[in-house]
Structure formats: C-alpha cells, structure tokens
Protein 1
Amino acid sequence: MEKKKIGNSVFYISLTLIAIMAVWSVAFNESFTAVSNAAFHFLTTDFGWLYLIAMIVFLVFVVYVAFGKYGKIRLGGDDSRPEYSNLTWFGLLFGCGMGVGLVFWGVAEPLTHYLNPQGVEAATPEAADFAMKSFFMHWGILPWANYAVIGLALAYFMFRKNKKGLVSSILEPLIGEKLANGWLGKLVDILAVFATVAGVVTSLGLGTLQINAGMKHLFGIPTTLLVQIIIIVVVSVLYIGSAVSGIEKGIKIISDTNLYVAIGLMAVCFLVGPKMEVLNSFVNGLGQYIGDFIPDALGISTYGDNSWLGSWRLFYWAWFIAWAPFVGVFIARISKGRTIREFIMGVVLVPALASCIWGAVFGNLGINLGEKGIVAIEKLQEVVGTPEVGLFMVLQEYPLGFLLSIVAIISLCAFFITSANSGVYVLSMLTTDGDINPPNNKKILWGIIQSVMAVGLLMAGGLKPLQTISLAAAFPFIFIMFAACAAFIKAIRKEKV
C-alpha cells in the first residue's frame, strides 16, 4: 500500500505541476516567456562557471570508474550478461540521447559558426575550422559523460543492489533510505519527471516544425498548424504504439531500422559530398578539439562578452543536464549485464565519435557551398536563420538531393519516435515507483499528455519558452548529479575487487 501511495504521489504532483506549466505557457505566453528568459539568463550569467565545471567533473567521474579497479564490475549479478546485442544497444541509446538533435543541427550549427564565428573572420577557412571544433565540443564526449552519470549509477543500484528504477534510489547511500523514500526522494523524482516531459515535448514540437519544413520544401505542403497537428497525431500513434509493445518489440524494431537508415544516409551524403574536405575536416577538427579541450571546456571571459558562450555552449550544457534524468534512466534500463568499463566505452566514447563523424559529413555539406562559392553567403544566411529547413536547402545542391531529403525526413521521424517512446517509457517508470516494466495505461496516458502539450504550445508559439524554463528547472540537477557521483563511489568502494 505504501509503495502504491508513493508512486501515485509522484505521479499526481508531477501531473499537476505540468498542467499548471502548460496552461501558463499557452494562455499567458508573454509572461511565461519573460519569466523563463529571465530565469535562464540569470542562471547562465551568474552560474555559467558552474555549468562548465560540472561537465568536466562528470567526465573525470566516468574516466575514474571506467579505467580504475571497478571497471570489471557488472551492472547486475556477476554471472549476468547483456540483454541486447551491441548494435541494438547502441541504436537505442543513440536514438534516445542524440539522434534528434544531430539531424536538426548537423548542417545548421557548423554553418552558423562558419558565418558567425568567435575571434576569426567569418566565411574563411579559419572560420570553417572554428565551426568544426565547436561542433565537436558540443556533441562530443562531454554530453555523453553527463548522460552516463545517471545511467551508470541507476543501472548499478537497480540491477546489482535491487533498488527501484528511480533517480532517488541513487542517492540512498548519501541521504539514507528514509529520505530517499520520503519527501526528498519524491522531490528529486518529480524534478526528473518535469525535466523529461519538458524536454520531450519541446523536441516533439521542434521536430514537427522540421518535418513540416521538409515537406514544404520537397512537396509544397504548406506550413500550417493543421499540417503540424496531423504530423503530431501520426507520430504519436507510432510512438505510443511502440512504447506499449515494449522495448523488446516496438522500440527495438524502430531503433534498429533507423540505425541502418541513418548510417546509410550519412554514407551516401559522404559519397555525393566533398569527400576530401570531410576527411580533412574530421581529422583536423578532432586534433583541434583534443588539443584545445581544457581551454575550450573551461573558457569563460572574466570581463569580456560571453554572449556567444551563453547562446551556444552554456545553452547546450543546460539542455544536456535537463535531458540527463530522461536519457540516464532509459540507458540504465537497457544496460543490465554490462561491465562498468563496457558501459562507459559504449555510452561515452562510441556515440561521441559517431556524433563527430556525423558533424564532419553534414557540416561540410553546408560549409563547402560557401568556401567554393557554389551558393552565395546571403543564401547561406537564410539556412542559418531557419535551421529547421537548413538540411533540405543544403541537400538540394548535391546529386540525389531530393531522394536524400526524403530519407532524411524518414530518419528524422524515426529518431523522434525513438526519443518520444523512450520518454514515455521513462515517465511511466518514474511514476509507478520505479517499475522497470510499467503498465500500458501509464504509457498511453503519458504519450497523450506529451502530444497534447506539443499541439498546445505550437498553437501558442511557445516551444522556446518551455525549453528555456526546463533548462532553468533542471539547474538543481547539477547538484543531484554531483550527489549521484559521490553516492556511487561510496557504494562501489564496498565491492570486493
């Protein structure tokens, strides 16, 4: 009875909080926008240094546990083995954690840095180098180390210590069982639910805008609210259906298929694109990324202008921290039986390298057009101004552009379905007292809530403010994740290795 009561309290309080936020953001959009912008500006201005340090701390933590004496410990019993093949596991965690963002920003972000760089002249070879180095920093090893903190700690406590599948379970060694199962634990889980809902809803909305933009660019289908609602309804049926069918069936099938589609899309784009420039850019970008890693990761001006840093790096770090509970819980759920070292290598190194390869291929599709003078800089500025259509505008300049754009839309839909059904699964876990196989009625309910909120926010034009307020609300997760690192190390020191 007590278990049900605690699970229900997290569910009802989270639902109430989300309903209030949804009504505020839709009905009183102006005040919601003002408050969210002010909160985010305050946090990134006054605490920008903390975001930078936090990401380095998370990286040091995962390196320490992966390559120290605890690396051989399994996330489960000593005789347990992984539930999923390496390819399926990678497809699930990549689709959940990064796929959506990479499709959206793969062309647009490097091009933006190329045309609006820091410290070098715009639209020059030096600006192209800056663009790649910045992209690698934003999508490389640090975001994945951030995801691994919650993922590793929760997988350890769930599968090796038989704890609930809740973020609050991680903190038990530090705060004790009573507080972890009491008001403090519930507060942590409610924050995790809110961050997950806000993150998935804004991504669902932004993805809908990009799919609509692609359809207009290719087929002349108008960019209207009705079309966007139809897209959300179709995607919703698919992601709710796949979530209900479970990880082993629906989620796995979509994830596996999309992994092959995304790899195929990237390979063909490499072949029709500027091959030598992509290879040089990848190698040079990797060298600059590694060589300048610490100065870039901790770079913040004392007296100068930090507006670029706030708009890009700090925004990304806040966004990835906001996604950490969602992605972390899902990665934990699919990682039973792996060793700690295997987990870190698979969750941090492999996806980071894949993200950098993706950025080199798609980023140079856009930058090459400017460097070779194929497309006027003014036209490329349009791509930067409307990032949701940027991918399709750039692809049309290359052979097979129309076909590649259609494949890109399919891949985008699949990545969004993977993210959304992972989100439904995590929300259902967090609101059923950590049940790793939550009931279907919860999955359906959370799926509908996400879709209705996305439609409401598109009607109000309020996607950006919700994203911004979610970043501000996720600020406490910096400290929760610090605590998770400490709790994990405290617990693992009792292991006999």
Protein 2
Amino acid sequence: MTAPAPTAPPFRLSGAQLGLIAANFLMWGGFFAVIPLVTVHFVDELGWAAASVGLVLGLRQLTQQGLTVFGGAWADRIGPKPLILAGCLIRTLGFAWMGFAETLPVLLAAALLAGIGGGLFDAPKNAAITAVTAPEHRTRMFSLTSISGNLGMVTGPLIGAALLGLGFRTAALAAGSVYLLACAVLAATLPHFRPAAVTGGGLDGLKTAALDRRFRRFTLVLVGYFLLSTQLNVAVTLKAVALAGPGATGPLYGLSAGLAVVLQYPLLRFVERRVRTRVALVAAVLTVALSLGLMGFAATFGQLLACVALYSLGTMLVYPTQQTLTARLAPPGLTGSYFGFSAISLGLGGAVGNVVGGLLIDAGARIGLPLLPWLSLMAVGLLTALGLRWALREVPTREAAQG
C-alpha cells in the first residue's frame, strides 16, 4: 500500500512576516499619497510640460531600479535589514524635499534621492520575504504582501488628495513621514540575518543571474509589461484628470487597488490550481494591453474606470507570479542577486514608460489624434505577450518545479 503524500505545514504568519506586510502597506501608501500628485501639481497646477514631469518620474524609476540591482547583491552579503532601514530613511528625505521643489532641477534631485532610497529597500525586501517564508507558502506570502501594497494604493491617493487641499508641500511631508513609521516597524519585527554564505555572492551573484539564459530572457521581455504598468501614473492619470478634474486620482487608484485587495488572492489561488503559469502571464499581459487600447475610446470618467477595472484584473496576477518564479529560479544564497537583476525589467520599462507616456499624450494632443497613445500602448502589450510566450518556454511552471 502506498504511503500518503506528506502534507505541507499550515500557513501561519510569523511576526517577521506580519511586519513585512504592515511595512509594505505603509510604503505603498506613502508612495501613492504623493507620486500621482506630482503629475497633477506640476502639470495641471503649475503648467509644466507633461513630458518634463514624465522625465523626472522616469529618471526616479531608473535610479531606483538601477540601484536595486546592486541592493539585492548587497543583501546577499550583509543581510537585507540594514539596507531596508537605510532606504526608508533616505526616501523620507527625498519625498519631503519634493514638497519644496519650485524648479525642474530641484524636483529632479529630490526624485533621484527618493529613487536611491527605494533602490536600497526594494530587492532586499523581497529577499527578506523569501528568507522568512517556506518555499511552499511563498506564492501566498507574495500575494498577501501585494494585497497590503494595494491597500496602501487605496488609502494613499485618498489621503494625498485630501492633503492636497493643504498644499502639495504638506502632502509630500506627510508621505515622507510614513516611511519613518515603516522603518520603525521593520526595526522592531524583522530579524537581522545573513543568507547562507555561498561562493559567488555579491557582484558575482549578479553575474550568475546575468548569465542565466532563461532568467535573463524572462527578465528582459518583462520590460514591455512594466512600460504598460507605469501608465497608471502618467497617461491614465492625465486622462482621468482631463475627464473629471484633480479629484479623479482618488477614485482611480482606489478602484484599481480595491479590486486587487478583494480579488487578487482568490484569483491567484484559482489560477494556481487550473492554469499553467506561462498561460496566465501571457493572458494577463494581453488583458492589460486590451484595457489600455479601450481607454482611448473612453469618453466619460465612468467608462475610463471600467477600463481601469479590466486593467487591474491583468496587473494583479503579474506581481506574485513573477516574484515566485524569481525566487524559484535563484540558486541558494543568491536570492537577493536574482531579485536585484530582475529589477532591470521594472527599471527600464518604468523609465521608458514614464517618458513615452508623457510624450505620446503631448504628441496626440499636438497632432489632433487622441487615440495615438492608447493604440501605441496596446501594440506594445501585444508584442510583449508574444515575447513572453517565447521566453517562458524554458521557465519551469509551478507544477514542473515541484514535481
């Protein structure tokens, strides 16, 4: 008689896991309390060109994700906790400085400082989640972390919009202070540990990730997806404000994040049981592409919100799946390096997306073709989905990885 298969231990959250979930909520809440307002304040209120503000946001993104590549490698050497705490403190200074920016160079400097802070805590945070969570529970832990981030996306814009009545400076200072609270939470709950020492850590770990052909291919193709995901902060925000005024940012982000809070975990569990990982990712990117194309035809704020709901259904599946695959593909002791290398896709896609989104909006308005940005973004999404289908041929599915 065959012995029954061993059952996985129950999934119970530890103090470190709860601290990471809570801190992630604070980080995302602080981020979305001020970043959407940058576009509203400097473009709509001060009359700056959308492309110039998009350039600032894109360089912030590129700085953060570029430094994240090395932040992950450093986490393999010294452990994630000191890097996460330092990053929170630096981001506090960057966001607070944004509130005092009156010229483009000052705004750019403040945004770059905020990007440096994010680059220090981004990959180490994912490495910490991996370290404190058993492999069989990582998909759920990444999903719960993502849900906490989406809760921050719900509350952040609402608080930011309310504080905007007191001035952009007040909103920026409040957003920065949230990162001090996140720093305190993680200082109290996250243990200081170093990943198991292995040969090839640090910069050698980045080299290992870069030479991993299937992981490199997977990472680079995702650049196209992150170009699309950034548009919620640029093109979609600008269209929402044009249709419903500055107060539209709250409902916009509230709907996107609220749907993720309610649906992401059950949808992810449903997909895990019934759909192969590569099929789910390709379908999710196609959904995002279609929703962006439909946004070009939205004539009312309600129609735009319907497109945002479709957009959210696609985006909510990507994060936990990508993070789980990254943790699965990383060799022992090189988790931080792999998470750091994976930031290249978000860095390039986010930087290009912020700039291109603003340029396309300006170009469409200049030539009298408002559909230009939306059809262009949809085309990028279709090409990305085809690229993922090709790249994921050699990335193991969950079923294959676990036998």
